[in-house]
Structures
1.
Amino acid sequence: MATGINSPIGTLPVEMLHRIFDNLDAETILLSIRVVSRLFQAAASTYNRYSIDFQLISTSKFPLLCRLINPENVISLTLLNNYRTFNQTDLFISLTHLKQFTRLHSLTLDINESQLNFVLERINLNTLTSLSFNIGIYDNRWTDTTLNFLSSALSQTTFRRLELYIRPETKSRISWPVNCTIRNLTINNGIYMDDLCKIFQNSPYLNTLIMNEFPKMMNKNLSLRFRQLTSLTFKDFCIVIDELESFLLLTPSLIQLKLIGGRGMLDGKKWEELIQRNLPQLNKFEFYFTQSISTMLSSTDPELIISSFQTSFWIEHKKWFVTCEYHFENSKSIHLYSLPICKPFLYYIPISKKISSSTYPLIMNNDLSMMDNIKLLELDWNESLTDDIQEKQKIITNQPLFSNVTEININSQQVWPILSLQSLSIFIDISRIVQMKIYSMYFDEYDQNIWINIGNFMKQADNLSSFIIENNSHIYYSTPTMENIYSILPHHISSSTYPLIMNNDLSMMDNIKLLELDWTESLTDDIQEKQKIITNQPLFSNVIEININSQRVWPLLSLQSLSIFIDISRIVQIKIYSMYFDEYDQNIWINIGNFMKQADNLSSFIIENNSHIYYSNPTMENIYSILPRHVRYLEIPIDHLNKIPMIFERCENLSTIRFHCDNTYFSRKVINWFDNNTTNTTCHLDDKIVCIWLGKKKHHLLERFTNHSIEQRPFKLINQFFKK
């Protein structure tokens, strides 16, 4: 590490560096900047405003980040269970001490209810100002505990923001404290009107409400008024204007109103009367209304609709400007929206496929600020778009039409047009794109210009981190097409979705982190062929997770020969699925054991066991005998309670276990064992799988471990492998 930097930035005070860090993610600060110099190392160590977000951290670097970061310096934490962050919540729980996160201001959770309670039990709720949670999998045994934690957070005088994505019936049971200090509430699914009234009665400072849906069981005779509410958003509602007015009667103090969705919302005169009657303080009105139609409209119909928004109330008094578009191809629809466009997603329709009219005098003069809120742009890559681009190139020269777009979806249902993808710079700033998705029914495998076209576009997309080729099951891509896809994969992406085939250009495999293969004689032949040509580095050098499937007799070849594919020392997770384990063939277990001895960084070991597979007692003992001592996450079948303490002793660093049991009765016996022999352990039963977040062993269990010699243990191979 350098001691200093011959650059003006090396002379900046630490406080200024911390201001710069406020605009960077934790991975960049700790893994890229921290290592540059001692100055930056000191600045990273004393920086106390870290935000940890699973979506922004690569799986391979996640364990290192958990070790480097000081929990007391984290003010924002986001834990998610999705396809990009699979299993990372459990891994995070195993690698960190949640009680040490003593300065958290913001907590975002999108996890299972059992995990939710495990986290909330250990987090200091007193410091929270913002809480957002979505329960992925409910567990009724935890509902009361969930509600207690939520009530505790709401009772804090510093609490300001809450976002909920939970069942309406669960919301009904929330105990709202009197004089709750919450100011911002987001409800991402349904809520009963009575519950919403209860919230406002107990939340005198609640001034911002965001909802996806209109409240259920609306009572039109309510005398209550939500006078503290100044900002209201409905993101996806489907009621008519008269029903909406019954709700707006309750909100006379509104200053801002945002509406996306609705039915029959196209009458400007009716809106004018409603606002003058019920919302005298409203000064910002944003909306995007869409209405499907079955009959063909004339070119004058959008003009008729827009005329009701051209009164002095709209143009002179409020200065609210509106555009109406009639999309007349395929699914015919009318789109009426305020300017600037208020929603983050736009499906772009070329001028030749729509009729447009606007009250905004500068719309034809390309006032691009009207598009600033759009982050995701979707378009059809066809000749109509080509013509549209060529027309726009004549008049738009300074900046793209949608300058803040970071994600783009490109659909191609026909022959790929000749126009270069780089011409999309008329719409977007290509250097800002972080995700690109392509859906095509047709790729001409012999037209290399297509792939040069896409490849050149992605070279310009310096910030691209996610690349997706969407491939429905009924679409078949030929081998040349598949190879063309791999040839244009950008090196700098961290997430990708595309079909996989073997390819000897090793750099094309740099972004693959998870490798799955069938452990068969065919693979044995393939390995032997590749050993003749690949000698310097493994084919998939950055793989950190490997899934091994064996449906037949285990082949003779050593698992260590997989070094032709992977760097075994980098593996952090191994998953084995086998329909067949020969309990008397000790070579299988020696094979697996030797492989895992080479996997120094292994933290997760899984034997996947579907309920229809029965493993004999000798097979089970062989499984237990090869468990690596340094593993933190373990998922295996279990057949007897007396195996648990042995697993406990053998795997000294365990923090999370998933046991596959033969039946629910035995699953409950496993939970009882942990209740009796450990403290602060959390168990969750899902059918016949028991999920366990380990606490501490009780004293009598520790004594048993101390007095229990290795020779007394029932595992046949326990001395043969992993000797310290």
Note: The chain has a mean pLDDT of 81.
2.
Amino acid sequence: RKAFSFGSNRELMAIEKLLGIQQVNISHCQQDPCDMESCFNQIQAGLQTYSGYLTYIHQILTTYADKVLSVQLDISNLSRNIQQQMEENSLTSVVYPQAENEPRFVEVQREIGSYLVLCRLQKFMDMIFRALRHCST
């Protein structure tokens, strides 16, 4: 956020809604007991969503291209690891069609839209961490 000059959190939330940035759901991961199969499928769907966004953001934020690429690789590795866990535990994997996750930001919205997607991704990764910890107990 320091690299960009954006408004208040309220303004950012309004812009996020205006741009149609997808919210990712992992409600199955918060159930007690954890429904691991549904949880993993929701995580996979979310990772796929953000993977699509990151491909687009990589082209927009050329100054940060190396960092975005690193995040893309981390997401890909996490997705592969979750898929492997699902296979090892004989869980059914739901394969979602490749979504068109390329946001349609106009020129002035590109940086702020990218920033908002990256903020959402960070929150999603925190939720995944908590969900996996919850499901492992």
Note: The chain has a mean pLDDT of 84.
